[in-house]
Design a protein that fits this description.
about 55% helix
């Protein structure tokens, strides 16, 4: 898949591209993926709220997407 996820990637846009990435957000405790607010957040914003390392999350998501 030809997608490069960054800290500025909007979660809703990413979920529209590949709903399978939801597993990574659920793993950090972000269980409100259907909420309009969370869908409009960037990965960096969500990680700040959930106290998670954005760089590690992005690395995992990009590895997942590149493996498809």
């Amino acid at each position: 898949m030809d997608v490069k996820v960054t800290k500025e990637t909007v979660i809703g846009d990413l979920l529209d591209i590949d709903p399978g990435v939801a597993q990574f957000f659920l793993a950090i405790g972000m269980h409100c993926l259907g909420c309009p607010v969370s869908r409009g957040e960037t990965i960096e914003e969500a990680c700040a709220v959930h106290g998670t390392d954005a760089d590690e999350l992005i690395k995992n998501i990009n590895e997942y997407l590149n493996g498809k």
